[in-house]
Amino acid sequence: MLEKIPLEAFRVFDAAARAMNFSRAGRELNITQAAVSRRIKGLEDHLGAALFTRRGRNLALTADGERLFQRVRATLEYLEESLEPFRTGTGEIISIAASGSVSHLWLGQRLKDFGKESPGISVRLLTTDSPSELASETNDLVILYSTGEHPRWNLTLLMKEVLVPIASPDYLASRGLESRALTSADIAGLDLIDYERFNAHWISFRQWFGRIGNPLKGKLPRPRLSFSTYIMAVEAALRGEGIALGSLGLIEEHLRSGALVTIGNDRVESGFGYYLGTPRFRALSPEAGQLHRHLLGGYQG
Predict the structure, then answer these.
(1) What DSSP string runs through 172-186?
(2) Where does the HTH lysR-type domain lie (predicted)?
(3) What is the mean pLDDT of residues 254-262?
């Protein structure tokens, strides 16, 4: 029966399938060629299937052997990854959760910088727009879209949400437009790029125009392009496809580089912001504390 197969038999099979040679597999595992041959024969007997074809000294996997090898290799690789935390100096892997827009536009470069400064600390990033996954207490650190209060997380403000229309200089130049000279009514008549709101508190162009006072005094403008994520809307603006709504803290790198510019003088503060959270009911590890300090110090808002 399959449940009686010794686990070591799968390790021997894996080595033999990778080496395609029983002698080399034996040297890798520090056992004899005869022992490898016996383990493989026992495994074949248990499974009722031939795993190798033997032609003199040459080996090849049978179709059953190939299927088994793929599954065994995947399983062993998973086990190796699972054991990795126990092989590091501290055994510590910091987990941080953030939304897709924060991860892509703001957090990624800062984690890269942290890795250079602290190469011995591993960081696992969970990117999700699910509120329950973001706020899960299995995370060490979180970045939440919030007003600053949460029952399970102590929150420190990273950046307030300030929203303003943005575009690439190429888009404006192609239409002979001057960014600061444009009014909200002018903006409403241009190529608007929007995104779908999966959170009732998010602000898209419809809500933005509503907060500054509808410049058209009637039906709100309809976006020319609408994407499923905020990231895609920003990327379309970078390509020069129109005007998107920029969250200033998230796109600061693009503004600093000149890839994007703000348009007009109207800005909306939503009352929300992006907050870095630490667990309220458990202590932060020293390594997670290092990352926490790095992220707070890394924002030049």
Answers:
(1) HHHTT--GGG--HHH
(2) 5-62
(3) 94
